[in-house]
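User: Please predict the structure of the protein below. I'd like the answer in structure-token form so I can feed it into my own downstream comparison script.

Assistant: Understood. Taking the following sequence of 239 residues as input:
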Amino acid sequence: MARPTKKQQQANLPEIIKEAAWRQISESGASTLSLRGIARELGITAPAIYNYFPDRDALVTALISDAYASFGDRQIEAMNSLPGPGRELDRLRATGLAYRDWALDHPHRYMLIFGNPVPGYVPPMQELMPVMMRSISALTGTIGELYALGMIDPQSIPLPQVENSQGFCDTMAKGDESTLTVLSIAMLIWSRVHGLVSLEITGKLPPYASDGAALYEFELESIARQFIRLPQAAPDSAP
């Protein structure tokens, strides 16, 4: 692979460093991420990297933040591609499909944000929480639309205990019952699609279908049946 010129490096060195980090992760795994290895690949000194990322953990955090942003963008774009009333279920399905598509396109990014592949790394939740919440905003948005239309049964799930909690549950604790319901359903849906996607991208998908797409779409349909109640048709007024 051609090495970036010195002028190119100087113009956008932080992005070039992150691109090299992703290459290293895809080739050797996140546990081997090395600032010195990146410096050798780019033909720069390690201190040049430290100017932007003072240590490995700072670089990992930047990679995770970028991955969450891209992940959220894909789902939000899918949701927004189906505007207008009456398409709430379509938006939910499109968001779910975009989730899997992004993970298959970026398996190493997906495993970095949802796994724990970097030994000793402790994610700074205060820093990452905004981009994490945005990454599920399409899901919570579509569930919120359905809830507002009376198409979500609040009794279909147990509400979580939020005392002495952190992260997502802190956000849930600040909301009313509708917020709790929407976020609770979103988290349950996430856990189910995450399980299938994780198995698929690691080659451990159970042999229930010829490919992951069929099983995944079956699960999306099962989720809709569990949580969503369709509006009752108006009674026929004819004699």
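That's the full token string. The first helix runs from residue 6 to 28.
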